[in-house]
Each structure stands twice: as structure tokens, then as C-alpha cells.
Amino acid sequence: MTKILLTNDDGVYSTGLKAAYDSVQDLGEVIVVAPSSQKSGVGRGISIFEPLRVSFACVNGFRAYAVAGTPTDSVIIGLFSIMKEHPDLVLSGFNVGENISTDAVTTSGTIGAALEAASYGIPAIAASIQVLDEGDKFDDHRAYSYDFEVGIKIVNRIAKNVIKKGLPDGVDLLNINIPRHATMDTEIEITRLARKIFLTGVEKRNDPRGRPYYWINGELIRDAEEGTDVKAVMKKGNISVTPLSLDSTTRADFRKIDELL
Q: Which of 76, 90, 188, 246 is 20 to 30 A from 84 in CA distance terms?
């Protein structure tokens, strides 16, 4: 029987996790192992200096394992302690908030979990939905209201094909991003990563005792080169599917690197 490991980075109680469950529940047995709380922005972080607690949670009509750790921790616990075998697919999502550009790929816990699964040769999908209010990314997602219907259908179709056919050579995971107002007629673009999605800034403030503290912030970049995920989602309102590889080695001429040595 087909087995699917489901995780996310918004936490086990997120409505996005329920939507992801709905997108693959008809494809096989779904085992849900996710962080017990919000863990956005932790990338592929792993807990190696503290023990991990796992508890059971019955949420949104299904049973889940809640891991007091990161999304990557959840994948590791799921694979090596709970399932004790490699599933046919790992799905990470739905993330509340788009995960596009190199900014997101290197910081997103959603993608970090998918990368961890991919490192063991397991086909992986990361799925995210765009938000129009940036504050939605950081709110309590247990009550987040969003129509996931289009995302559920798109992910179901892609997941079914990945389980049946596998991923192409050189592709370790698919990063899917659904625009806020997508319909089943919305164009799907196969894209590459844009360089940036944030114009990074730092805001300095003072606490009541006059000591400084800092908030890292940044405005969204809403346009980029043609063929990129940022252009597809932010500018054109298209669904973006970006094939990613674990191998970050540059394709530059190594002789040029040798000159630096």
C-alpha cells in the first residue's frame, strides 16, 4: 500500500496541514508528523542539543504525531522512529504564505522538511499558498480561513503522478506555490528561483530602559525576471512549480575557481 508522510512548519494545528491531508488522503495511508507549534523560518534546522518529545494530537478529523522540534526533526522522527521505513512520498505543507525565491528556499521550514526527505532519496513536494496580508504568515493558523480547494486539487494531481512515475533525474523535490486567487483555469508555470523576494531591512528600537533592540523586516519584491517563481506568482498570478535539487554546486567553469586558489 502507498504510504505518504505529511508534515509542515506552521504546526500540527494549522488549517493548511488539514488541507494538505485532504489533498493526498485518497492516494494511500497518510502518516502525519509535524511540529507541535509554529516553526516558520527555521529552514532545515535540526535539534541536536536537546531531546525531542512526541505526543499524539487528534486535530481536524485525523490523528497526528506532534513533535516538539523543527520540521526537519519531524521528518526524521517520522521516518526512523514512527514509520521505520521510507514512504512513497513526503508532502510538506500547505504553508500559509508563499515560499518563492532563494530567500525562501534557504529559510523556509516547509522546504527544509522536504529537503530532508529528499536527502534519503524519497520523492518530496513542498506546497504553499500566497497571502495578501503579510501578517497572516505569523498569526495563529489554527483558525486561518482560506479556500484551499484549488491547491488541494493541484497537489493531488501532481502527487498522484509523482507516486506513479517518480521525479525526473536531477530533481529532488517540487516546490509548488498557489496564488491567492487561483482557479483551476490558472496557468501553471515551471519556473526557476528568483534571486530575492525581500528587500531586507533592520528597524532599531529602544526598550523602556533605553537599550536598543532590532527587528529584521523587509518589503516584498513583486516582480522579477521572466521564468522565475516571483514573476509567475507575484506579477502574473500563475501557479509556480519549481524543480529543486539538493546539489547546490555551481555550474561555473572550475578553471575560474582554480585561478582564485
A: 246
Q: How do the domains of the chain map onto residue ranges?
A: 3-195+224-259
Sequence-separated (6 or more) residues with CB below 8 Å from residue 226: none
* Residue 60, pLDDT score: 76
How far is it, in rounded angstroms, from Cα 63 to Cα 37? Answer: 16
Q: Residue 244's pLDDT is what?
A: 98
C-beta contacts of 45-51 below 8 A and 24+ residues apart: 45/70, 45/72, 45/109, 45/112, 46/70, 46/72, 46/73, 46/76, 47/73
Q: Residue 143's pLDDT band (boundaries 50, 70, 90)?
A: low
Confidence of residue 133 (pLDDT cuts 50, 70, 90): low
Q: Which residues 6+ apart lie within 8 Å of 132 measured at CB?
A: 180
Residues facing 244 on adjacent strands: 173
